[in-house]
Backbone:
């Protein structure tokens, strides 16, 4: 029997996805478990394996288009079956190479649904959707193969009503903006899943999370000395490279994690039903990648040694750049670190990445004269700015957290106890 | 106030036969070894001593002939109850049951009715192997002109048999052999369990199970286990295969939004297929929030090996797992 290949749901709150690359061609013979294509979700890329064995028919393979999950994107025909040409998948929303593309839909809800009835839904879900005027194409199905069940409709409705009072327009109308510029003087890059997510989440954060900012200047000469000494003592591995190379950021992660343990009132998440008080310090770390950024999370960073944090960070950053992060790598977290010091930035304010309650924006270490006993002494200073979600973290609590961080980062020996 | 006592399933049947014979002299019993021996499963017991050999007649080992005599007696005005030792042997008599009894009312313009009852001991679990363990309800239920019923409790075993004996048409009363020793409350007076009416044995809100015969108690057991997990199963005892009580099923499915059919007969082309299709064709379709599930007998003759025999029909553990998946949206 022919096997349908569907765009699967690989992430919890995913309603659409994009195929970034196909590993097989139309008409290829595929084995069960063979990689068919990479799916780009809102947050990461993931390889999707073949659900069957036989000849695959892809048709006009939709690459870089936004497709509702559950859409049939290919058919696999077993030996002896007529491998009919496949034309069922949604057409690409916008060809990537075209200099002026059709306007990209402002949000996933208006993405075209498959004309071949690609939406799977139970009879009950269909009837309720009909009665309530909900488009099934806009609903993420939680059942096997993305089937929409009645509970998904209730969830979709709840999500809709939750956002209804403040609709999140994440951009200006494409036509109106283009009219301001001479035709041919620009090109358009369609929004990919990551860019769309960054836009949506940060608009949501800035519009719904009341931010306030606290800045402190940390003297990091001791830190730099310790770092040099520790790196000097790193044993050599078989290939002659040192076992670790601690960065300033590794110290920042550890210090922030420990500070959150000392000031647990800041280790929280705001929800409508109450404040989640976290017990461990899961620290997200912004990692810049081509075309965007990811925030993988170092779990329970307060329990980990600097070398552990350093090695974990390297692995996560490599995964992020390869777009191979799994949801378990980036979901959750209670705070985050964003470090632009390496670009020479002295100080900046970061936007909180929900569900976090805080984010620490870290600037460059800069040498300057500091008065010590009324005499100028040369010191290295690093400015850090803590953004706080005022719904959960009040000014005094934020200040306490920042003070605890400053104490730890200025005297790293304290992190040993 | 009616007296309520505990009786075994087989004693309840015997009481129904005795009360019917006392109340109506047209009623008589036929079958192999039902007299002095008391029946292959001791259901008729000592009835021969109470009612005499004219009304409790031993027949030769010739099911086609015996069934033919019963059909003829029914046409002539008697109310015969013919016992097959095993319902599997009713296949020998299918000419009389299917071609004669089921058709006469229609072919003779309604001038004749055939009020015959065939008692059909059925089902696996006794180590009697493939030719003595089948559940052929669906096969006979396929025939217009027949009525097919199966009780899951001693109370219904009596009530359905009395209703069958009084029914003007041929009725096949299936009796699962493993239920004969099961005890339950049985009112002492004569009463009838209506043919064509299912009953909700356990109300629930998460899924509907339509079960038949011994699968009713297994489904109830499964429902109790799942109740411990917060899953609330409604169990319907189908009782009548032909005619099917669609109203009770549809009403339940509209409430629970999920349906499973549990029956011992072979799954393929079975009772579950019929119930699934009836629901899919009905107004209840628009209430389904999951695919319909069938749990039936394996695609195999019933094996002699006790382990395989058990594996060939639905068991409580399997019902629990399947219903859990159904309610959790994993099907």
Residues:
């Amino acid at each position: 029997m022919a096997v349908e290949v569907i765009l699967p749901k690989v992430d919890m709150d995913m309603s659409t996805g994009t195929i970034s690359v196909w590993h097989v061609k139309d008409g290829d013979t595929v084995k069960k478990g063979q990689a068919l294509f990479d799916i780009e979700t809102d947050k990461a890329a993931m390889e999707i394996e073949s659900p069957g064995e036989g000849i695959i028919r892809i048709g006009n393979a939709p690459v870089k288009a936004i497709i509702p999950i559950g859409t049939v994107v290919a058919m696999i025909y077993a030996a002896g079956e007529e491998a009919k040409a496949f034309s069922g998948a949604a057409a690409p929303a916008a060809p990537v190479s075209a200099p002026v593309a059709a306007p990209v839909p402002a949000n996933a809800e208006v993405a075209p649904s498959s004309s071949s009835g690609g939406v799977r839904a139970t009879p009950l879900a269909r009837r309720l959707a009909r009665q309530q005027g909900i488009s099934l194409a806009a609903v993420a199905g939680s059942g096997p193969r993305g089937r929409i069940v009645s509970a998904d409709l209730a969830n979709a409705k709840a999500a809709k009503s939750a956002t209804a009072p403040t609709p999140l327009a994440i951009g200006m109308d494409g036509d109106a903006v283009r009219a301001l510029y001479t035709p041919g003087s620009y090109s358009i890059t369609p929004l990919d899943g990551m860019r769309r997510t960054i836009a949506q989440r940060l608009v949501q954060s800035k519009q719904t999370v009341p931010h306030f900012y606290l800045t402190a200047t940390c003297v990091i000469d001791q830190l730099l000395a310790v770092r040099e000494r520790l790196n000097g003592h790193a044993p050599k591995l078989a290939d002659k490279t040192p076992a670790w190379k601690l960065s300033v950021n590794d110290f920042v992660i550890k210090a922030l994690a420990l500070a959150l343990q000392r000031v647990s009132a800041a280790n929280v998440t705001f929800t409508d039903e109450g404040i989640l008080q976290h017990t461990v310090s899961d620290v997200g770390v912004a990692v810049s990648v081509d075309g965007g950024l990811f925030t993988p999370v170092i779990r329970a960073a307060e329990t980990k040694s600097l070398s552990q944090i350093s090695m974990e960070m390297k692995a996560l950053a490599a995964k992020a750049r390869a777009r191979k992060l799994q949801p378990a790598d980036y979901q959750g977290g209670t705070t985050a670190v964003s470090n632009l010091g390496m670009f020479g930035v002295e100080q900046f304010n970061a936007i909180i990445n929900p569900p976090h309650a805080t984010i620490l924006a870290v600037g460059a270490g800069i040498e300057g004269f500091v008065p010590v006993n009324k005499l100028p002494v040369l010191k290295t200073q690093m400015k850090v700015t803590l953004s706080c979600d005022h719904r959960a973290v009040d000014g005094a609590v934020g200040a306490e957290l920042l003070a605890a961080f400053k104490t730890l980062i200025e005297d790293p020996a304290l992190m040993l106890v | 106030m009616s007296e309520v006592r505990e009786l075994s399933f087989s004693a309840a049947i015997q009481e129904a036969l005795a009360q019917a014979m006392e109340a109506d002299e047209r009623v008589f019993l036929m079958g192999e070894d039902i007299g002095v021996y008391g029946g292959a499963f001791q259901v008729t017991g000592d009835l021969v001593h109470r009612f005499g050999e004219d009304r409790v007649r031993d027949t030769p080992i010739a099911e086609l002939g015996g069934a033919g005599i019963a059909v003829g007696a029914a046409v002539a005005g008697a109310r015969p109850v013919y016992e097959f030792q095993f319902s599997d042997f009713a296949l020998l008599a299918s000419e009389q049951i299917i071609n004669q009894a089921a058709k006469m009312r229609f072919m003779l313009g309604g001038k004749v009715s055939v009020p015959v009852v065939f008692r059909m001991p059925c089902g696996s679990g006794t180590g009697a192997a493939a030719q003595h363990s089948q559940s052929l309800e669906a096969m006979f239920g396929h025939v217009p002109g027949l009525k097919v019923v199966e009780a899951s409790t001693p109370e219904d075993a009596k009530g359905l048999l009395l209703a069958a004996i009084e029914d003007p048409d041929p009725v096949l009363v299936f009796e699962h052999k493993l239920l004969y020793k099961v005890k339950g409350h049985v009112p002492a007076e004569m009463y009838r369990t209506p043919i064509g009416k299912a009953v909700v044995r356990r109300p629930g809100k998460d899924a509907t199970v339509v079960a038949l015969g011994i699968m009713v108690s297994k489904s109830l057991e499964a429902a109790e286990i799942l109740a411990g997990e917060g899953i609330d199963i409604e169990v319907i005892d189908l009782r009548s295969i032909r005619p099917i009580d669609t109203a009770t099923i549809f009403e339940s499915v509209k409430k629970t939004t999920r349906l499973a059919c549990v029956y011992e007969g072979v799954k393929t082309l079975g009772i579950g297929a019929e119930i699934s299709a009836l629901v899919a064709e009905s107004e209840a379709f628009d209430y389904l929030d999951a695919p319909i599930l069938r749990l039936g007998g394996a695609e195999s003759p019933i094996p002699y090996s006790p382990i395989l025999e058990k594996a060939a029909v639905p068991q409580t553990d399997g019902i629990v797992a399947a219903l859990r998946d159904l309610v959790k949206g994993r099907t």
Summary: The interface with chain B takes residues 122-127, 142-144, 149-151 of chain A (CB under 8 Å). Confidence is low (pLDDT under 50) at residues 90-116, 164-168 of chain A.
